[in-house]
Amino acid sequence: MEPTALQIVWFGIIGLLWAGYLVLEGFDFGIGMLLPILGRSDSDRRTMINATGPVWDGNQVWLISAGGMMFAAFPLWYASLLSVLYLPVVLVLLSLIVRGVAFEFRAKTTSAAGRRAWEWVIAIGSLLAVVLWGAAFGNLVAGIDAHALFANLVITDGKADLTASTLVPMPSLSVLISALNPYALFTSLTLVGLFAAHGALFLALRTKGELHQRAMTAARVLAPVVLLVGAGWAIWTQVTHGPAWGWAVVAVAAVALIGLVPATRAGRDGLAFALTSTVAAGAVVLIFASVFPKVLPIRLDGVDISTAFDTTIALGSSSAPTLTVMLIVASIAMPLVIAYQTAAYRTFSRRLGTTA
Questions:
Q1: For site-directed labelling of 186, which of 5, 59, 164, 237 has its Cα 20 to 30 A away?
Q2: Contact 319, 3 (CB under 8 A)
């Protein structure tokens, strides 16, 4: 069964929401990871946190919207992710919760040692979240190994016979272990490098003085690394999983990656930040293009058997009337969210200086 135009539109909308989340939350994660590296004093680290303080929680709106839209538009996708990837999803949520709590407790702690401890929690939580998101997206592209779910999978007339198949004793744990494959780990490495550079550039945009110079130096060091790792990941993804038109996305990302090096060396923080944003958005486009027309690829000995589990766009979506009503609501709500966040970023666009 081929997906309808309405189903494809909603698949694209969810991809757009994930792109917004990774572009906006990506620099937030990056600043968190760089907190113990660039923050040489308590005032430096306070300035780094203040650079994202007014907007970091607002960036979570994109994650919540993406999850809610997935649940409403593709309930089987949402259910499959939360059941098959239950343990990885819980770890991601825990890292986000701990990281958010650390921001609040750091601001309310009076002792220097206490603030330093919460700063390390922010840094570790940010790094862990990026690694887990990278592994999750990597396995979304590569597909879930059916052997991690079933000890013996029986497929009858093109459908998975779950009554005749034997579920492994701890599927969430076995899926988590199988998720630590080379492609998923390389995806995590790519996101860590990209978000670190993305965060350094946003920090450079929001600060002045010595901290600004330090952030730009970090971006210059990271730019060649992001170029090599990002190019390797994009080519690997496109060659093994991407559609023919995905090479156009790879070409756009390549131009942005190549331009990142001279832009950082010239101190063009605004241009460089736009380039890392383009790369992050392009990565999401390539991921969703590689998955299409499935919502959760499942493979058995290298063969895609997603249709046996109905984990495709055509078979796993809500009804057409539901998608139509949701599209009307989304066409009203999404511009309002974008306008609100644009106003928030403009309001807090003043560069910050380190204070004693």
A1: 59
A2: no
CA–CA separation, 36 and 28 (whole Å): 14
Reply yes or no on whether the pLDDT at 201 is more than 60.
yes
**Quick check: 250 and 286 in contact, CB under 8 A?**
yes
Cα–Cα nearest to 177, from 147, 152, 153: 147
67-126 pLDDT, tens digit each: 888 888 988 888 877 777 777 788 888 998 998 888 888 888 888 888 899 999 999 999
Coil, strand or helix at 159: strand
Kindly list the structural domains of the chain, giving each domain's residue range(s) and its CATH number in brackets, ordered by start. 5-140+183-346 (1.20.1630.10)
In the numeric block, the tokens 């690829």 are attached to: 297
C-beta of residue 26 within 8 angstroms of C-beta of residue 337:
no
How far, rounded to the nearest angstrom, does the alpha carbon of residue 227 sit from its chain's CA centroid?
A: 18
Number of H helices, E strands in the chain: 13, 7
The 3-state secondary structure of 87-156 reads HHHHHHHHHHHHHHHHHHHHHHCCCHHHHHHHHHHHHHHHHHHHHHHHHHHHHHHHCEEHHHCEEECCEE
Q: Which helix (H) or strand (E) holds 300?
A: strand 298-300
* pLDDT exceeds 70 at position 354: no
